[in-house]
Request: fold
Amino acid sequence: MQSCPFVFWVRSDDTMRLAMSEDKAVLPPVDPVRAGLTGRCPRCGEGRLFSGFLTIGKHCANCGLDYEFADAGDGPAVFVILIIGFIVVGLALWMEVTTQAPLWLHFVLWIPLTVVLSLGALRLIKGLLITLQYCNKAAEGRLDVRK
Ligand SMILES: [Zn+2]
Reply:
């Protein structure tokens, strides 16, 4: 058994198999961070994850993985708010303290920068969280109802 920082894999000859009970696909290992940041399928690393800019596709065109499990929820927005907010507010404060720029210049600079950075980061973080969700088998909590 070999482990990576994000997922556990089971070695089977020269190929690796994801240790998920319901997923029996035999595929080479995919780096979830790379696949997520590039918007690729979390199982094969080849097919597109997004059908639009932020819309998740129905399934992988390469391996057929159904993306119905993919639900990043509010996670990407939280990370974007924290990360981009820290960067933009830090830059705005630094500029205000060092140059005492007029208010209109702050609006002209920081609002478009915030929009552009947020949209770019939102796609990256959404892809990353969904691939990590797949690799770690993260899902909503369910009650174990035994009959
Ligand atoms: Zn795939």
Observations:
- The longest strand covers residues 8-12.
- The beta strands are 2-3, 8-12, 15-18.
- The chain has one domain: 2-135.
- The pocket of zinc ion is lined by residues 41, 43-44, 46-47, 60, 62-63, 65 (CB under 6 Å).
